[in-house]
Amino acid sequence: MRACSCCYSWLAFIFLFMKTCRVCLAAKPLDAFYQSKSACRICLCAKEKRRRLEKGDEIRAKARARNAANPEANRTRVKAWVAANPERRRRNALAYARRNMDKIKKWTRENPERLREGKRRNQAIRKARQCGNGGNVTRTGWLTVVASSGGKCVYCLADCRITVDHFIPIRHGGQTIKGNLLPSCQRCNSQKGDREPRSWVEAQFGAPALARVLSLLAAA
Ligand SMILES: [Zn+2]
Ligand SMILES: [Zn+2]
Question: What is the pTM of this model?
Answer without folding.
Answer: 0.44
